[in-house]
Design goal:
This protein is about 40% helix and about 15% strand. The strands form three sheets. The protein has a seven-stranded parallel β-sheet, sandwiched between helices. α14 links the parallel β13 and β14. The structure holds uridine-diphosphate-N-acetylglucosamine.
């Protein structure tokens, strides 16, 4: 894609306001898609409002935003990436880096090499990264060191979901979070702990904005649509109660996700968690959509017998369990709407995903986090030892609907984000105009 108009001068600042602001958003891995989708939708809504206001203009109004979507390809399977684009109505990426899997160093380096070329070609005003995956850090680092011209022009770096801290530097995501925050110029925070963490680390307060959670924007936008999913029928979890389909009821089930290397890359740790789930499995079936990393480990460690399947046929059926021990129903990774439907109707969710902790909190579904720590203090119960898991499950099973939704989880986070970066962009452009010598302006 060609780059248009004059290059910016200074840190993310343009010389002239005659050109449209150009925003480049990076996505790479599954948890990025639902965080970026509402922001892209908010940019489109902004453009539609401006276009309607200046409908009589022949040229594209300068106030509209040009948006470019870059997919690094960190996640590449249809089940981990493609299906999310269709479920979330994300536009097709303008650029796909096709990086794929690798060690942390290899994956990060490959993304950096390829992303630098894209940045030099596109010269955007804003680079927006979301979350804490390797793609997030790789692209923020490239943007922090790039210069587009001899005047040192470079883009403004925006980090969405800034400030979260687990205080556990053995987690790759913690390194990604800290480094991304410290090279970013606009930091959008999802919860109050993020504000405090960034202040404690000396990030200038004018860079930090508490806007809420764009992943919850997606949740609220798609909550009703998820009801059309047929996943409950496919898993035998919805029973017809009346004649000719007059009524139906949803069976009791729990939902499980596990993919953290600390939980699944070590056989003992993985077995420990499965042992902690035994009591729950006698009470109701546990639906377990299995991440590719976890699928590999189940086979490698020979854990199929612990999961009640031979591990090759990944789709399960709760009806098979009859009155026996219900066990764990394995499925392939699920699309966004299918998973949301399962989450909404679950009796209990057991997970090691940070995002699912936030989603269940907003849905009022009891959640047990299988981790020693969390960067999201909204979590209610956490731990990894068998007894700890068992106790947490027992307490959560008797818990009723949650005591409320966290602050600013109102579906408007993306709109706040777009408002802030339009305002910041114009403030910087104006202050820059008064600083630029006449010969350069
Ligand atoms: C990444 C993120 C993690 C996030 C998770 C969600 C980092 C450091 N970690 O972890 O924060 O919670 O995504 O899934 O960025 N694989 C496939 N198909 C795919 C993608 C991956 O088979 O489409 C397999 C590959 O064997 C790969 C492994 O999964 O080696 C792990 O993928 P990777 O992107 O390295 O990390 P995740 O564990 O998915």
């Amino acid at each position: 894609m060609s780059h248009d108009g004059k290059v910016l001068s200074g840190r993310g600042i343009r010389r002239s306001q005659a050109r449209n602001m150009k925003v480049l958003t990076v996505v790479g891995a599954r948890p990025n898609f639902m965080k970026a989708a509402p922001i892209i939708a908010a940019i489109n809504e902004h453009n539609e409002r401006i276009l309607a206001k200046f409908a009589d203009r022949r040229e594209r109004p300068a106030e509209t935003i040009r948006h470019i979507l870059v997919h690094t390809g960190q996640h590449y399977d249809d089940l981990m990436s493609g299906s999310f684009f269709s479920d979330l109505k994300l536009p097709k990426p303008d650029v796909h880096l096709g990086v794929g899997s690798g060690s942390h160093a290899v994956q990060t380096a490959e993304i950096m090499k390829k992303f630098e070329e894209v940045l030099l070609g596109e010269k955007p005003d804003v680079v927006m990264v979301v979350g804490d995956v390797n793609s997030t850090l790789a692209c923020a680092l490239v943007a922090a060191k790039i210069t587009f011209d001899s005047a040192g022009s470079r883009p403004l770096i925006v980090h969405v979901e800034a400030g979260l801290r687990s205080f556990d530097r053995s987690m790759p995501e913690e390194i990604n979070r800290i480094l991304t925050d410290h090279v970013s110029e606009l930091l959008f925070v999802t919860e109050e702990s993020g504000l405090q963490n960034l202040r404690n680390e000396g990030v200038p307060p004018d860079r930090i904005h508490f806007v809420g959670n764009t992943m919850i924007d997606s949740l609220l936008a798609f909550k009703e649509k998820a009801e059309a999913s047929i996943i409950l029928e496919e898993l035998g979890l919805r029973t017809q109660t009346g004649k000719k389909g007059a009524g139906n009821s949803i069976n009791r089930y729990a939902l499980l996700t596990l993919h953290r290397p600390t939980n699944v890359d070590n056989r003992e740790a993985f077995l420990n968690i499965l042992a902690g789930l035994e009591e729950l499995a006698t009470d109701c079936p546990i639906v377990f959509p299995v991440h590719p990393r976890t699928q590999r480990r189940i086979k490698e460690f020979g854990l199929e017998s612990h999961l009640g399947t031979n591990g090759t046929k990944i789709k399960g059926d709760a009806r098979d369990s009859g009155n026996r021990r219900h066990g764990i129903i394995l499925t392939d990774p699920l699309g966004y709407l299918d998973f949301l439907c399962l989450m909404k109707h679950a009796r209990l969710v057991v997970t090691d995903s940070g995002g699912i902790q936030e989603e269940t909190t907003c849905l009022g579904i009891p959640c047990v986090t299988v981790r020693e720590n969390t960067e999201r203090p909204v979590t209610v119960e956490s731990g990894t030892e068998i007894e700890c898991i068992n106790d947490a499950i027992r307490r959560q099973k008797v818990r009723r609907a949650s005591g409320g939704v966290p602050k600013k989880c109102d579906g408007q986070a993306a709109t706040r984000i777009v408002d802030v970066f339009i305002r910041t962009y114009h403030e910087k452009a104006l202050s820059r105009q008064s600083l630029i010598p006449q010969t350069c302006a």
